[in-house]
Amino acid sequence: MKQSEYRDLLVTDKSKAQRILFDEYLNYVYTIAFNRLRSCGSLEDVDECVSDIFKDVFDSYEYKPNQNDDIKGFISTVALRRSAAYYHKLCKNKNSISLDDENTNAFPSNENISESAEKEEIRQTLLKLIDSLGEPDSTIIIQKYYYGRSSFEISGFVSLSPAMIRVRNSRALKKLRRLLSDNEIVI
Amino acid sequence: MNRKLDLRILENCDMKTLEVLSRKYKAVDDKEAEKIFRRIENDADYYEDVQVHNIEPYHRPVWRKVCSVALPLAAAAIVVTGGVYFNSQLENYKNTDDISETDTMSGSVENSYAAISVTDDYKGTILGISNWHIEKEDIYEYDNSVRITFIDDDTGNEFAYSEIKSGEKYAYLVDLDNDGTDEMICNHIRAVVYGENNNHAAVYRLRDGMLEAGKIINNYEHILEEHDISLSSYVDFSDEYSPEKNKFIFKSSYIDTEYELGIEDYSFSPAFLYPYYIRDNTGYLLGVKNWHISKESVTSDIENTYFINDVTGEKFVEFTGYKDKTSVFLADLENDSAPEVVCNYQWSEDQENMNNHVKIYRVNKGVLECGEFLNDLEAFEKAANIELDSCDDFTEYYNTDKNKIMLKKQGEDTEYELGIEYYHFKPVDLQDTVQTGIDTE
C-alpha cells in the first residue's frame, strides 16, 4: 500500500485504513520490536512497544500531510526508534552516558566493524540453514528458539499437534546442529 | 547434545536479517494480533480523554512525557542510520505524542481492555482455539433460556458452555488477570427463584495449556463473611459479569447492596476432569453429538466393539477384545485440554492368546485419526533401550491412575511409559454399519 492510497482510504474510512495498514505491517513491526527487546523486555513490553509504534504511525499520517510515499521506510524508522527508546527505558544500561556530557567524544565506540560484519554473515548463513530444513521444521525452530514459544503455542503457527511438534523439533534440531557443524558455525 | 539452541546472535541484528526474519516467519499469531490492535484502539479512546468504565483517569504531566520520549529518541537518532530522511515526519509524531495522555491508575481496576462480546458475528480465537463453532439448544421455553455449547472443530470436543436468555451475548472475552491472554466469561443459570434466574459466572482460562474453569461456588462463603451478609445458599444470589464495569456483580433479592467482585474471588480447577470411563450417555465425543455403543460377538469369548454415529450410521471407533476385558476412556494424555479416546483392547497376529494393546482416537485439525503403536516400534526401542520383535512380544495398557500408557515386555516385570508421540496416527476410514451388516441394537 502506498501512502497516497492509505490517505485516500483514511478520508473515507479511518478504521478500515488503519486496520489494513496494521495487518500489512504488523509482522514487520513486531519482528523489529521483538528483535530489540528480546533479551530485556517481556512479551507484554513488546506488545506495548508495537502498539505505540502503530499509534505513532497512525497519528503521524493523520496530522501531517504531504509525506513521502514510502510507507515501509517510514514505519521501519519509527519502529527502530521506538524500540530503541523502549530498550533504553527497560534495560537502563549502566555504561550509558549523557549526550550532553562534554567528555562524550572521549569514549570510543564499542562497535567492532569487522566483528559486526562477521556476525552479519553468520546470521545470514544461519537463517539459510534454518530455511533449508523446510517447512514446518524451520518455523518450529524459529518459534521455539528465537521467539521462545511452547509447543502448544507453536501449534497456532503450524498445522501439527503439540506432540508432533516436539517430535519434529527434536529431529530438526539434530539436523540443524549437523548443518551448523558442517559449516563450522558455533553459536 | 540436548542443550538448548542459542539464537541470541539474531538479536539486535542488521536490517537485512530483520527483513529475512519478517518475510519468512510469522511473528504473531492471530490472537496476539487482535490483542495488540485492541490495545491501540483502546489507547486511542484515552486520547479523547473519555472516562472509561468508571476508571479514575490519571493525567501524566506533559513534561514527563516529553522527557520520556525525547531523550531516548535523541539517543536512538545516533544509532539508526538513514533516519535523517524521515526526521521531519518524526518531529510531527513526537508532537502528537505529547498532546495529552491518559493512563489508567486505578488500584481496583487495572485492566485497560474492553471486553469483546461473543455473538454469531464473532469469528476470532477463543482460549487459543481458532477453529470453533457454537451449538444452540433451548433449555426452557417459558423463559427463552438457551444453552450455548462451544465446540473445538479441530478436536471435536466441547470446551465451554454458556446458559443465557435469548438475545443476550453468548460470552465475553477479556484479559481479567492481565496475563496477556483473554479469559472467556460465560453465564450459567443455576436456578430460577421468584421468576428470576440466579445466574453465576464461569470464567474459562488457559494455564500451561490446561483449560480451567473458575466459579464462585467454593469461595462465596468468604465473601458473605467479609461483607457480613446472611444468605443460606448458592441459589440466593447471583454473580454476573458486567462488561461495562469489567467486574462481577454480586447481588441478591435478600440484600440491598450490590458488591463488585474480581477474578481473585473465583476459585479455579480443570474445566473438565479426565480420564472418565466412556458410556453410551457420555455426550459429545470426537465431534459426534449423538452416538451409541454396539457389540458384535466373534466367538464365545471374543467380541468387537463399535461406536456408531446415530445420524450417519458410521462406525467411528472400533476395537476387538475378550468379553468384559476391554475398556474405553476419554483421557487427556498430553494435558493440553484436547482429550483423546483411549481404548484398552486385545489383539494378536494369530487371533489366539491375544495381548493387551491400546488404540487412541482423536480429532486432529478436524480429521478423525486413529493411532496405534504396532506400526512404529523402532523409535521407542531406541529411547527405552529395549528390543521388541513383534506386537506379540509386549503388552500395553492405559493406566488411569497415572494417566499414562504402560508397556511391558513379555516375561519381564519392568514397565515402560509409552508416550503418545510413539503412536502412528492415520485418518479413520469411516465405514457404514448398514453395509457391513452390524447389529446396532
TrEMBL record, chain A:
Tell me its family: Belongs to the sigma-70 factor family. ECF subfamily.
Q: Where are the transmembrane segments?
A: none
- Any Gene Ontology biological process: DNA-templated transcription initiation
Q: Which InterPro entries match?
A: RNA_pol_sigma-70-like, RNA_pol_sigma-70_dom, RNA_pol_sigma_r2, RNA_pol_sigma_r3/r4-like, WH-like_DNA-bd_sf
Identify the domain of life.
Bacteria
The protein's matches in NCBIfam families, at most eight in alphabetical order, are given as: sigma70-ECF
Q: Which GO terms describe its molecular function?
A: DNA binding; sigma factor activity
Under which name does UniProt file this protein? RNA polymerase sigma-70 factor, ECF subfamily
**Record key words, sorted:** DNA-binding, Sigma factor, Transcription, Transcription regulation
**Species whose genome carries this gene:** Ruminococcus flavefaciens
Automatic annotation (TrEMBL), chain B:
**The organism sits in which domain of life?**
Bacteria
**Name of this protein:** Uncharacterized protein
